[in-house]
UniProtKB/TrEMBL annotation:
Catalyzes the hydrolytic deamination of adenosine and 2-deoxyadenosine. It comes from Streptomyces ruber. Binds 1 zinc ion per subunit. InterPro entries: A_deaminase, A_deaminase_dom, Ado/ade_deaminase, Metal_Hydrolase. The active site is at E214 (proton donor). Its EC number is 3.5.4.4. The record marks H235 as: Important for catalytic activity. The keyword Hydrolase applies. Residues 18-353 form the Adenosine deaminase domain. Keywords: Hydrolase, Metal-binding, Nucleotide metabolism, Zinc. HAMAP family: A_deaminase (MF_00540). It comes from the Bacteria. Belongs to the metallo-dependent hydrolases superfamily. Adenosine and AMP deaminases family. Adenosine deaminase subfamily. This is Adenosine deaminase.
Length: 362
């Protein structure tokens, strides 16, 4: 007997579902109108100045299938994120956009070293972003849509300041910084080149994730986990290279390690399509990996650059990959379980916010 299809989840329900996002870049999440205004103030020339046309330009450039070109779009957002005032504004608006999207917990990442073209110091960059995030969280709570946002500081893997940025993450771990990451072009810039940063973080008990398994394959994931000691993997779509037959679910040793030790994969479906790491939403590895019991999470990566939201990512998975409400709850719980938060706070967030929200939707 053929099972009845799962009931369709309407757009309003999807928007209201409690969500958690672990992989999202602040400099890839500006509002188009804000970018236009800040660019005019900074004297920076944009490809177009109409906010809607600018948003379309980002989507087209990011959708080229070329990770290098995808990353190059950030020259425009970073150009306007070089002052205290611009960081305060973009951080506050980021939080309010999460709240409007139904996100109850988020981790936002950025590279402070890329925001020093003005006269800000590294600590001043971090403090401005934290102040903006705090203002956004206060406004969201006052509006009845509370959201908690932690920060990941990124070192750039093609430069030599990762140890310094790791020290910055340690210094601000009691002021809203919850972890560390390395970002930038993956292929040709191995994570192991930055072992000093990871050793310092481990010595100071600060968690970290590493971008791996997106533009480069299994060696990148292996190195991130077994050499550097990452607690999560950013993207990780290439872990399927170690599962020759996804349908049969026979895992290689690295894939088994990732699944059995509940290492979270921070998957970003739309972004992965844009960079060529996946071919379609319907065939994106996140579905097969979810069904095989991997701790997958769903993320936006870059809201402006990818033209997406958490609601949109979930909607695409429902419409094109057949996801159900149970699937969405699973990946949301996965994300909170893997958040760089104390255990008791994760448990409370799941028990008091996430699960009741899905029960109401069901």
């Amino acid at each position: 007997m053929t099972a009845a299809p799962a009931p369709r989840i309407d757009a309003d329900t999807l928007r209201r579902l409690p969500k958690a996002v672990l992989h999202d870049h602040l400099d890839g999440a500006l509002r188009p109108a804000t970018l236009v205004e800040l660019a005019e103030t900074a004297g920076h020339t944009l490809p177009v100045t109409d906010p809607e046309a600018l948003a379309a330009w980002f989507r087209e450039a990011a959708g080229s299938g070329d990770l290098v070109r995808y990353i190059a779009t950030f020259e425009h957002t970073l150009a306007v994120m070089q002052t205290r005032e611009s960081l305060l504004r973009t951080a506050e608006e980021y939080v309010l956009d999460l709240a409007a999207d139904g996100v109850v917990y988020g981790e936002v990442r950025y590279a402070p070293e890329l925001m020093l073209r003005g006269e800000l110091t590294l600590p001043e960059v971090v403090e401005a972003v934290q102040e903006g995030l705090a203002a956004g969280m206060a406004k969201a709570a006052a509006a009845g849509t509370p959201v908690r946002v932690g920060t990941l500081l990124c070192g750039m893997r093609m430069f030599d300041r990762t140890r310094e940025i790791a020290g910055l993450a340690v210094a601000y771990r009691d002021a809203g910084v919850v972890g560390f990451d390395i970002a930038g072009a993956e292929d040709g810039f191995p994570a192991a080149d930055h072992l000093a940063a990871f050793e310092h973080l481990r010595a100071e008990s600060v968690p970290f994730t590493i971008h791996a398994g997106e533009a480069h394959g299994l060696p990148s994931i292996h190195q991130a986990l077994q050499v550097c000691g990452a607690q999560r993997i950013g993207h990780g779509v290439r872990i399927t290279d170690d599962i020759p037959d996804l349908a049969a679910g026979k895992l290689g040793r690295l894939a088994a390690w990732v699944r059995d030790r509940r290492i979270a994969l921070e998957m970003c479906p739309t972004s992965n399509l844009q960079t060529g790491a996946a071919t379609s939403i319907a065939e994106h590895p996140v579905t097969a990996l979810k069904d095989l019991g991997f701790r997958v999470t769903v993320n936006t990566d870059n809201r402006l650059v990818s033209g997406t939201t958490m609601t949109r990512e979930m909607s695409l998975l429902v419409e094109e990959a057949g996801w159900t409400l149970d699937d969405l709850r699973t990946v949301t719980v996965n994300a909170v379980k893997s958040a760089f938060l104390p255990y008791d706070e994760r448990v409370a967030l799941i028990r008091d916010v996430v699960l009741p929200g899905y029960e109401l939707a069901g």
